[in-house]
Amino acid sequence: SVLLISLSGSHTWQAILGCELREDGSKRGFLHYGYDGMDFISFDGETFRWVTAQPQAQKVKEKWEDDSGWSQRNKVYLETCIEQLKSYLSYSKEALQRIEPPVGRVMHKTASDKVEVLICQAFGFYPKEIQAIWRRGKEDCKYETLLRNVAPNSDGTYYVRLIIEIDPKERDIFNCHIKHGSLQEPLVLAWKENPEEKLQDW
């Protein structure tokens, strides 16, 4: 056996390869193989030689280093990986750095004499991650809030809606609490009566 280990039963052969570009400008390529959860053999991106992590890997090292084509392909990959990574980063730089704060509003709909529905909308924000919840005073209405899924707009930004049913008598103590990476302070919204507002579809 090349591995000089038992080949009976089932075994796991794993590989991890890639490259890193650090903030200080340094870079590193890596190619590691593992056997049954243990480090086994890796390719040194500076010397372009195979380095064993287990005694059983020595035969594999000798076999792979005798195959000049195999080592050359790994060398080329590690040399070009960084350039490819730089290209991907330049393509996505604008998206990665894009920050758009949410704009919000609160609407309401009368469901019955004893129930009103408040709808909080936050839209035009980027990136997608956002925290939004209805509050009754300072108390989070975690279980009462119906949170619609965050959805994309045609311009690449996102929007979300939160709905809660309340007692009309308590309307003034409810507020919509929104946290987003673009905001230094949470955006807090409450319903304000607008005679021209007509809520058709919610």
Automatic annotation (TrEMBL):
Entry annotated with the keyword rRNA processing: no
Annotated membrane topology: Single-pass type I membrane protein
Signal peptide (UniProt feature, chain positions): none
Pfam families for the chain: C1-set (PF07654), MHC_I (PF00129)
Family per record: Belongs to the MHC class I family.
Ranges where the Ig-like domain occurs: 101-190
Key word Glycoprotein present: yes
GO cellular component: external side of plasma membrane; extracellular space; MHC class I protein complex
Single GO biological process annotation from the record: antigen processing and presentation of peptide antigen via MHC class I
Protein name (database record): Major histocompatibility complex class I-related gene protein-like
This protein's UniProt keywords: Disulfide bond, Glycoprotein, Immunity, Membrane, MHC I, Signal, Transmembrane, Transmembrane helix
